[in-house]
Amino acid sequence: xxDNINFMILSSELNNLxxxxxxxxxxxxxxxxxxKQGHIPKAINIPEIFTYLPEGITTKxxxxxxxxxxxxxxxxxxxxxxxxxxxxxxxxxxxxPRGLTILKYLGxxxxxxxxxxxxxxxxxNQKYKISTKIIHNTPKxxxxxxxEDFFLDYNEMLEALDxxxxxKLDVRDKDEWVGISSSPYGIDYAPKKGRLPNxxxxxxxxxxxxxxxxxxxxxxxxxxxxKNDIKPNDDIVLYCFKGAxxxxxxxxxxxxxxxxxxxxxxxxxxxxxxxNAPIIxxxxxxxxxxxxxxxxxKKKLDKLNLEKTNLIDFPKYNKEPIFAFDREGFICxxxxxxxxxxxxxxxFTDIFKNASKIEIYNIIDNNQNRDITYKxxxxxxxxxxxGSRDANKILVYGFDTTKIYKLNNTLDKKNQELKNSQxxxxxxxxxxxxxxxxxxxxxxxxxxxxxxxxxxGWTKEELNNHPNSFELFxxxxxIQKAVIDTILHQPKEIFKQWHPLNKKGEVLTTMWTHIDLPxxxxxxxxxxxxxxxxxxxxxxxxxxxxxMGEMIANIAHQWRQPLSVISTxxxxxxxTKENNLLSDDYLFDMCTLIDEKAQYLSKTIEEFGxxxxxxxxxxxxxxxxxIESFLKILEERITINNINVIYxxxxxxxxxxxxxxxxxxxxxxxxNSIDVLVEKNNINNRYVFINQKVExxxxxxxxxxxxxxxxESIKSKIFEPYFTTKHKSQGTGLGLNLTHNxxxxxxxxxxxxxxxxxxxxxxxxxxxxxxLIIPIN
Length: 777
Prior knowledge:
alpha/beta; single chain; 26 helices; 777 residues
C-alpha cells in the first residue's frame, strides 16, 4: 500500500481515458432523476452506493448481507478485477468517496479506484460531452476478497475506546458531535445523540475546499491534523454516521501520507442502537457556549428552511453559505456557482449602505442576525445575515423570493380589486333571484339573502332566535336528518328536490345544490319551483284528459263491430220469433254469440279502465306484459290505419315500477308515430318497430318508425309543452312533453330522439327513433 496516494482523478484525465477506450467503469451515484437529465458518457447509475444504510456490520449475517449486496451491485455494473472504477456525484462531498471505501473493503485494488475531482460540476465546467442515454453495462462476476482489518465492527470499536494508542477521529457535523442532532437525516432520526468516549473531532468540511469541489491543499489538511496532534504514523480509526463523510476524510489523509487508517463504517448509526454502548453528550451541560451557539443557529436556520421559497444554497445548518464577509466587510469566501446570482455584492455595505465597521464587528462578536430583501436586476432575494464569532465571519444565506415578491404584488392588487368588488357582490347577493343561504355546524344562519326572506317569509334574525331553525322548514326529524346528510355528502353538481314549509305553513317545492368553501363552510344555492311544478301538474292533467279522449275514441272503434253483431243477433231473434221460426238450436247459438261479444266488451272496459284510473303505484310486471298491454289498447287505431307494429323483446325481465305511467309513455310515443305515418300519405308500408333489451342494469326501449324523420330545425323542441306540428284541432303538443317529464322524474331515466336510416326486408327506410333508458328498479 502506497504511503501517499491520490484517489482523485481530474475531468481531463477521465476524458482522455474515455477517448482511449480504456477498460473503465464510471459510476454516477446521484439520484436517477438527476442522472437521466444528463451524465458523463458511458456512466451507469448506482445511487445505492450512497443510499444503502446497514444498521450494523458486526454479526456474521450482517457482514454477509453487506458483502452480498455489493457483490451483486458491482457484478451488474460490469466490474470483475481489472477495470478502473471511477465514482462521481455533483461535486466532491461524501457520496462518491463512500464507493471507494466500500470497494476497498471488498478487496479491490485501491490503485484502480478513483473519485472525480470537482464531480459533474467540474466536468460541465470543462464543457466536455454529456449524455442522457440510460446505460447498462454487460454484467461480470465480482467476487469479494474482504479486507477484515479495514472495517472495524462494534466489538472491535468498543475495545479501541480505552486504547490511548488508537485515535478515534469523529468527522461528523458539529451539532452531531456536541449532541444536538442524532444524524444528518434529522435531529431525532436515530435513537441517541452524542459521541464515542475518548474521540477527537475534526469536522469533515475541514478536509475539503469551501466550494466542496475537491480536497483542501495538503498544507491546510496538515494544519487541521497538527492542531489535534495527529501524526502520520498514528493508528487512526475514522467514524461518522454511515461511512460517507469519513470516506472523503480518508481520501484527504491518504493523500497526505497517513496510511495506518481503519474505518468504523457502520458508525454512529450502529453505535447509537446498541443498548449499553457508552456515549458522551454535551447537551447535558447547558452552559456550554458551543452548544448554545449551535442551538440558536439551528433554530434560526430551521425556521428559514420551513419557508416555501427557492433556496439559493442551504446545506445543513451553518455549512457553505452563499458567501462570507470578513471583519473589514469584504467578501472572504464564496460559493461561486451560487454567487453568480448576486454579482453586485462585493462588500457588506452593498447590502447595508450605511453600515460602519463597528456595526460589522458587533454582528460577528455578538452572533447577531439580520434579514433584508435585496434586488438584483429583475430578481428579489431574501438574504439572511448571520454573525459567527466562532468563524470570525458574517455568513450570508439566501432565498430567491422573486416569485413570492411578484405574487405578493399581485395579491395586493387582487385584494384591492376584491375590496372594490365587495359592495358589488353584496348588492348581487341581495338582489339575486335565487336562494342563497348558509348555516354553521351549530345550525346558526350566517347567510340569508333577500330572495330567501321573500320565498320563506322568515328573517335571518327570526331563524337564529329559534332553537332549531331547520324545524321551521322540516318539522319531521327524519326529513331534517336527510336534508343535512344530503348537504354534507351530495356531489356539488347534483340538484336535489325538497319540500320545505314557508312561514305561512305552505308546502313549497325547491331545488338545492351547494358549494364547499376552503374554510369548511357550505353555501347552499337553490330556487323555488313551486309554481313551475303546479304548471307541470296542470299540463299533465291536460295531457291525461287528451289521452282519455283518445282512449274513448279507441273504445268506440273497438266496440263498433261487437255491438253491431249483438244488434244483428237480437234483431234476428225478434224476427224469427214473430214468424214462429225460432228453434231451440238457433236461440242457443244466438245467445252464445251475444254472450261472447258481451264478454269481449267487458274485457275491453277493464283494459281501458286500468289506464284511465291513473293511480300512481308500484307494481310487479314483465316488459312483455307492458308492451302487449299498451298495444292492445291501441289495437283498433293500429288496425284501421294499416300500421305494421313489429316488436322484439330481447330480455323479458320481471320489474317493480310504475306500470300505468310507463304505459302512458308508450302510448304517447306510438300515437306520435301513427300521426306522422298517416299524415304522409305517400308511405305505402307503414312500420313501427319496438325493441326492448337490458344493458348495465338499465332497460332500453327503442321505438322506430319509417316516417322519414323529424326536421332538424324542430327536433330540439319536440319535448317542449304545447309544441306541435299539427293543426290545433288535431294535436295539443302535450303528449311527448308529458312522456319526457315522466321518464325523467318518475323513472329517473332519460329519453332522446334521433333520425336514423335502416333496412327492413332488403328495403331502405328513414325515420325517427325514440330511445328510453330506465333503471330496472
